[in-house]
Design brief:
Keywords: Membrane, Signal, Transmembrane, Transmembrane helix. The structure is a single chain. This protein is an all-alpha fold. It folds into two domains: 42 residues; 41 residues. The protein has five helices and no strands.
């Protein structure tokens, strides 16, 4: 539990250490992405509806669609993968990735001098 707290605090420190982007451009980008997604859905509405109906019909009539993963891989088998060594390896991987990301962000950030 303590390792998770340390890992999350490292991740939070990296996120907070990054330079703050312009808020208005981020909002503009998010809005333009949302508008583009809505335009795509409206322009392809017929295809989306037909795909959803055909998928639901196939699943309803064949019974082939199932969200039960217990048939494929039992949960009891998954618990054997959760060992202290695997948790330590995952923690080390995450910590090194966060450190590499922070170093890259620090190197690429160059403030504009007016």
């Amino acid at each position: 539990m303590m390792r998770v707290v340390i890992t999350l605090s490292l991740l939070l420190a990296v996120v907070l250490a990054d330079p703050v982007p312009k808020l208005s451009s981020s909002i503009d980008d998010a809005l333009s992405l949302a508008v583009s997604a809505i335009q795509w859905l409206v322009s392809n509405c017929l295809v989306v509806v037909l795909g959803a109906i055909s998928t639901l019909g196939f699943c309803k009539f064949t019974g082939s669609c199932s969200l039960s993963y217990e048939d494929i891989l039992p949960v009891s088998q998954l618990t054997s993968y959760i060992t202290p060594e695997h948790i330590q390896t995952a923690e080390n991987f995450l910590a090194s990735a966060v450190e590499k990301y922070a170093d890259e962000r620090r190197r690429s950030y160059s403030p504009i001098n007016y």
